[in-house]
Amino acid sequence: MNVLVFGLGALGTVYSCLLKKAGHKVFGIDIPSVASCIDRQGVQVRGIWGEHQAFLDRVATCINQLDEVDFDLIIVTVKAFQTDAVSQVLKPYIKDTTYVLLAQNGYGNYEAACKYIAAHHLVLGRVIFGAVTLQPGISEVTVIADDVLIGQPEQLLDTARLQVLAEVFSRAGIPTRVSPNIMDFLWAKIIYNSALNPLGAILEVPYGKLAEMEWSRQLMDQIISEIFAVLKALKQPVPWEDAEAYRSTFYQQLLPSTAAHRASMLQDIQQGRKTEIEALNGAVVRLGEGLGIETPVNRVITWLIQCKEALGLSKA
């Protein structure tokens, strides 16, 4: 397969390296400083999936440098706030047989991409392994809670086609399976990220510490309750009946497995980068406003992250 990975951060580095090692032609796009580094040194993956290294077929800074390539698969790993612009750029390069995997966090990526790319080309991914960037082109996989799930939200692709993609990823070393209910699981990840990522960034502590303190537990409980109120109004199912059932799983199973993890949002703030708060708690607030549902804790959490983000950007 001809594969383009758009965004060579922590996740993009993992996908590009392992797919290249599996024998695919892999191309990457990122900003000049990252692209030049990867062009010289290749990409590396370390951590719980072992040690891997590969040189990509080409690393570009904009897609028109790859005009002659027909892509079978494009993997988008940029931040959620970049999805709209990236989808617009990708539109002319989508062939009849091209699939675009949106392997991103948060709510709204599919909707943004659909403005420019026909929905039957789009596949959503629920990625729930953790990777951190050690330096440009070098990622460490630190934790995996479940297989990657892929699916088409409107059931516009048959299962056999999706299964082919899942097998491509699994053979490359990224455990992946197909889900007919991908939005249910994407929302499950949004709940998890909204409860932990912003508070971990604000308080600058690992996830496990948030569960140890009564006050942070109360905040997380309220964040979760507000999200479930919004989901009920949206009639969006998730794998749990209500907020109470989710909290039981959250504290007993989900949080302990990532107790030592530090919020990626904190890493963004510390490095002077824009966060994805608008695709997490901010999205909950906007959806709540449209449905007439109050989400005061999610609103305050969003404001606090925006303050930290602004302070971080001013120091960058």
List the defining traits of the structure above.
48% helix; 2 domains; N-(1-d-carboxylethyl)-l-norvaline Dehydrogenase, domain 2; globular; 316 residues; alpha/beta; 4-stranded mixed sheet; 8-stranded mixed sheet; single chain; Rossmann fold; 17% strand
Characterization of this structure:
This protein is an alpha/beta fold and 316 residues long. It has two domains: 2-180, NAD(P)-binding Rossmann-like Domain (Rossmann fold); 184-315, N-(1-d-carboxylethyl)-l-norvaline Dehydrogenase, domain 2 (Orthogonal Bundle), CATH 1.10.1040.10. 48% of the residues lie in helices and 17% in strands. Helix 8 (214-234) crosses helix 9. The protein is globular, with a radius of gyration of 19 Å. The mean pLDDT is 95.
How are the SSEs placed, and which strands pair?
Elements: E1 2-6, H1 10-21, E2 25-29, H2 32-41, E3 43-47, E4 52-54, E5 58-60, E6 73-76, H3 83-90, E7 99-102, H4 109-114, E8 122-126, E9 129-135, E10 138-144, E11 148-151, H5 159-171, E12 176-178, H6 182-203, H7 207-212, H8 214-234, H9 243-257, H10 264-270, H11 281-291, H12 296-315
Parallel strand pairs: 1-2, 1-6, 2-5, 3-10, 6-7, 7-8, 11-12
Antiparallel strand pairs: 3-4, 8-11, 9-10
Helix pairs in contact: 6-8, 6-10, 6-12, 8-9, 8-11, 11-12
